[in-house]
Amino acid sequence: MDRWLECATADRVKGGTRLSICEIQPPMDSKSDRIFKACQDSEDRFPTRMKVRDSPLPEAALAAAVEWNQVERVGWMARVAGVESHDDGDVFWTYSDGEFWPGNQVVGAQFTAPLARARVAALLRYHLERRAACNWAIGSATVPPGLGTILRENGFSCRIHCRAMVATLNSQPGALGSVQGVDFQQSDVPVPLQPVTTPRRRAQFDGWVAVGRLRPQRVWYFGAIDSSIPVGTATLFEGERAAGIYDVEVIPSHQGRGIGTRLVREAMDLAGQHGFRTAVLSATAAGHGLYTRLGFRDVGVLSSWRYGRMRQRTL
Q1: SS3 (DSSP) at 99
Q2: 255 lies in which domain range?
Q3: Are residues 119 and 31 in the same domain?
Q4: Is residue 29 a part of any domain in this protein?
Q5: Which of 18-27, 169-178, 208-217 is predicted least confidently?
């Protein structure tokens, strides 16, 4: 775990006292495995973190913070009924028999180089035996650094490379600009941009509703509405040290009007009001300029890999 610890700055303290993982609040739901096995050598396996959020993360920790927030988010989603969660010590992954949601995820890999190929093969085998897709996220804190090559050797394809970005938040944000004819709302229920009329869309929507209703609340949804029609959306997930912004989308007919900017500002401002000083996100090429204008900067790269069900049908 040394590389992760170096990236995440393990020696953060509060009042001169080192805080262990088992002190982190809120705890995971008892019916799912915790992301971190709190009382089992957590000091050696994962970085210690402070309960407080009111100071920016140190520079060396920023790239890891983006990936770490993603690990926390996947673990939070695993609290929903029907989702298996597995903390193997060197990786965290979730699996669901549901065909469409939440998408089987593997995150936070910390493999030793000699075992990396065997670990990838074992996790893939679990999914192949169930004829299920396997999605894998890797970033600057992933170990070993060449894990993408091993995934490709096992038949995974890289779906997208995104910029890992961070911004410092303000506890007293400025006024939000208006967008003519568009109303903005905040809720624990997501705003669907497409009619929920197919099994896939229904499963996805119901899953995100369940996540939004988990307590204590760590997920907020933001929507842009034009004449009762949803035209944009964004999601805020509050981790232990950073607030993550996800799923920013504006329908093509309404792009270029400042809707995306306003949605991201809404999420940033709420996180700042809740005491966070660091916001993280992963940016595609299309959204990179918007996030840069809002004060985000590049700190690394996140990649999404997939071994899909269609590939299995050809085997």
Answers
A1: coil
A2: 182-299
A3: yes
A4: yes
A5: 18-27
Average pLDDT over residues 124-135: 93
Query: According to the model, what pLDDT value does residue 242 have?
Result: 95
Which are the contacts of 129, defined by CB distance < 8 A and separation ≥ 6? Answer: none
Residue 61 reports pLDDT greater than 90: no
Instruction: Confirm whether 168 is domain-assigned.
Output: no
Cα distance between residue 170 and residue 222, in whole Å:
19
| Cα gap 271→172, rounded to integer Å | 11
pLDDT given at position 170: 81
CATH number of the domain where residue 23 is located: 3.40.630
Q: What percent of the chain has pLDDT over 70?
A: 77
The total of structural domains in the chain comes to: 2
Q: What is the mean pLDDT of residues 151-169?
A: 95
Extract the runs of DSSP E, i.e. beta strands, from the chain.
13-14, 17-18, 83-87, 92-96, 105-107, 134-138, 157-168, 182-187, 219-226, 229-238, 243-250, 278-283, 297-307
Which residue pairs from 149-153 have beta carbons closer than 8 angstroms and sit at least 24 positions apart in sequence? 150/116, 150/117, 150/120, 151/120, 151/305, 153/117
Whether residue 152 sits in one domain with residue 188: no
Do you find a cis peptide bond into 27, omega within 30 degrees of 0? Answer: no
Instruction: Give yes or no: residues 15 and 145 share one domain.
Output: yes
User: Is there a single domain that holds both residue 28 and residue 149?
Assistant: yes
pLDDT reading at 75 higher than 70 = yes
Q: What is the pLDDT of residues 199-210, one digit of tens each?
A: 888 888 999 999
- Domain assignment of residue 177, yes or no: no
